[in-house]
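Pinned message: reference record for NAD-dependent epimerase/dehydratase family protein
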Amino acid sequence: MQTILGANGTIGTELAKALKNYTSDIRLVSRNPKKVNDTDTLFAADLTNKDEVFKAISGSEIVYLTVGFEYKLDIWKKQWPTLMKNVIDACIENKAKLVFFDNVYMIGGDNVKHITEKSPFSPTSKKGEIRVELNKMILEAIKERGLQAIIARAADFYGVIKNNSVLIELVHKNLAENKKAQWFFNAKVKHSFTYTPDAGKATALLGNTPEAYNQIWNLPTDRNSLTGEEWIRLFAKEMGKSDKYQLFPAFMVKLAGLFVPFLREIYEMRYQYDREYFFDSSKFEKYFNFKPTPYQQGVKEILANN
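Predicted structure (tokens):
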């Protein structure tokens, strides 16, 4: 059995679609799970509860951790390390492999200008420090406790996403409502985005490739990065809208953060948007002979599905 923890989020859903190419024995775990494939097994669980984590993982061969907690530092501090400990312990007890779907917050400052699997832990944010802690927990369990695990990292997402995508929220949704597109901090620097269907397919492929374990993998992402302005122009052209946009510089985001909690959280991550941000997935592309979806094609597919 292959089990997805956090199954009904954007990545969990894309992963479930892709896993059907490998198995029909898929367990979807969340508070209110819904089938993606006809043969899926649903398991309702509160993953902040240790006993329910162990029950959800029981009998699993591979466990995919794709949980997305609310984007608040205090929630991350309280819930992420505890969940990771419980998941690792349950995987070891059940002799299950672990695939952790991660971001790149543990890499900070100018190291985001070229992000590879070998980029050093260099957090410049509180959220980044938490991601370092989670990565170290997995790496230590691999080394000391015999856990078989993969850390699969993605850049920021774009795709048919309900929420939590800066690109979709600031550009696509605003243009769809005949408003100006928006961007944070600096629209003249390039920024990589990972296409969610690619992320789902690649995570399923990694989980079902025995030799991929006990490694870090950057998930496939188009290397032809675009600047914020180029992203806006791309969406505007495809949607037949104006490419004029509103920029939120750092001081404005910081000020607005006094009143809008989400912007307060975003301000801490400004290093990802005020300089070049390039996510290099060449290791994955070469090993699996996988071509990431070009940005232009991804945007066309998003608009066709909205």
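Pinned by admin. Summary line: The chain has a mean pLDDT of 94.
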